[in-house]
Design brief:
Leucine-rich repeat, LRR (right-handed beta-alpha superhelix); alpha/beta; 7 helices; single chain
Length: 212
């Protein structure tokens, strides 16, 4: 049998894991993909895909119900904006993609309903207001192992605008202290209200590093 012979029998599966398979392009085979349109999770971690445009084509054409996307351990060039938003995607995993906040700003505006984001092992140096505004439904955010992220204020304090955040993971970042914002008492109180709503705040930092 050929691969396509097996694929037609896979119409009930909901997850595809192609991690570490040396994939460098997606073929354009309707015969295969038409049996995989029900897929909820696509893992293409650690492959050789070079451009985001390659991924946009596949998502647009073949995975209309995708909810989880893992593109970790990849070095992809953001060469083209997608033509559609991916409103069904709830979770995106971009661990070790060698990027800063600028790229994530471009990506996340096409995923308007994300609630879980993993950005560990990148080169984050800042978190912008635009970035935060694009992930307003977020409940889980992991930024661990970004040693270049060294300023709690204003960058981490901006996450106080996320009204639904419950879990924030900040292990092994470059913070020397936790510092509340200086924009006035009302802003500070609102920020603290959000922080108190967080169910889990993971932070590898000394307890005496909390500063007002």
């Amino acid at each position: 049998k050929q691969y396509s012979d097996y694929a037609v029998d896979l119409s009930s599966i909901i997850r595809i894991d192609l991690s570490s398979q040396w994939v460098n392009e997606f073929d354009d085979n309707d015969y295969i993909y038409n049996n995989l349109r029900q897929i909820k999770e696509l893992n293409i971690r650690q492959n050789l895909i070079k451009n985001w445009s390659q991924l946009w084509i596949v998502l647009d054409k073949y995975f209309p119900e995708l909810e989880i996307l893992n593109v970790s351990n990849s070095r992809m060039n953001f060469d083209l904006n997608p033509s559609n938003e991916y409103k069904y995607v709830k979770q995106i995993v971009l661990i070790d993609t060698d990027n800063d906040c600028y790229l994530f700003e471009h990506i996340f505006k096409y995923f308007p309903n994300l609630n879980h984001i993993h950005l560990d092992l990148n080169y984050l140096t800042f978190i912008s207001e635009l970035f935060v505004d694009q992930i307003k439904y977020l409940t889980y955010l992991s930024l661990s192992d970004n040693p270049t992220l060294i300023h709690w204020d204003p960058f981490i304090n901006r996450l106080g605008m996320l009204k639904n955040i419950q879990e924030l993971v900040l292990n092994n970042c470059g913070f020397s202290q936790i510092k509340l914002p200086d924009q006035g008492m009302l802003f500070k109180e609102n920020n603290l209200k959000i922080i108190r709503k967080i169910t889990f705040l993971y932070k590898m930092i000394q307890t005496n590093c909390f500063h007002h």
